[in-house]
Design brief:
The chain has one domain. 18% of the residues lie in helices and 40% in strands. The protein has 2 helices and 12 strands. Strand 2 and strand 3 form a beta hairpin.
Length: 193
């Protein structure tokens, strides 16, 4: 047998073994896990309080965290989505179990929510750095970049209704920019002082 034939045979054996493993896994390429609606940011009682608050606002369905994090204090800071009985998707930022205003249409290019926070890892050996944790809703026709230390880079977003959302942290010099498809800047936002 030629070396070329051996290579083809070896590739065939690898492909068959791979397909066998795929079939043995039940047709899944990796273990699938379903994330919880509260992202693990809330225990049962506080999450019940959140869903009850949304129900009182006429949004009893599909309540879920779109994006969020825990602040240095351990308090959840999250952008939460819920749907009305007629299917309208709305959002509210939550600090702990306190919901902010309800937003049912993302009309501005970028809607930003801030929470003053600290970052111990940002100043090793020194006192924690004051930062702002940011949650944002992004209109569907907009892309967002962050400028940090003079460098501009894209922001990873997740789907949120007809737009998208993200969370990040800001230090004093950082800035967010929202652009339309032609690259025109629609909004340029810095954190509060």
């Amino acid at each position: 047998m030629t070396s070329h034939a051996w290579k083809i045979l070896a590739l065939a054996v690898v492909a068959i073994a791979g397909l066998g493993g795929f079939a043995a896994a039940g047709g899944h390429s990796s273990p699938s896990t379903k994330p919880t609606a509260n992202w693990g940011l809330y225990s049962a009682e506080p999450w019940h309080s959140i869903t009850t608050s949304f129900a009182r606002r006429g949004l009893p369905n599909s309540v879920r965290v779109v994006t969020g994090t825990k602040l240095a204090t351990g308090q959840p800071f999250a952008l939460i989505e819920a749907r009305s009985n007629n299917g309208q998707t709305c959002f509210a930022a939550a600090r702990g179990v306190t919901l902010g205003r309800t937003i049912c249409a993302i009309t501005k290019p970028l809607i930003v929510f801030y929470a003053r926070d600290t970052c111990a890892g940002c100043s090793p050996g020194g006192p924690p750095t004051i930062i702002h944790t940011v949650l944002a809703l992004v209109r569907g026709d907009v892309t967002v970049t962050m400028i940090s230390h003079g460098h501009e880079s894209g922001v990873g977003v997740v789907p949120a209704g007809t737009g998208s959302a993200f969370n990040s942290s800001f230090v004093r010099a950082d800035r967010l920019r929202a652009r339309d498809a032609s690259g025109r800047i629609l909004a340029s936002i810095s954190p509060p002082a």
